[in-house]
Amino acid sequence: MTAALTGTAPFTVTASRDYDPEVSTLPAMSLGSYEIDMSGGEAARRLFAAGARHVVLPRPVDVTDPADAAWTVRALSFVGDLTSLAVSVGWQLHTGPDPDAWRHYGHLHPPTAVLGTADPAATALAWRSAYYICKCVFRHGPGFVQIRDRRYGELRRFTIGDDEPEYQEAIGALTDGARVDAVPRAVLDDLMAETLVLRYGDHLWWAPYRVRRWSEAPLVI
Question: What does pTM read for this prediction?
Answer without folding.
Answer: 0.91
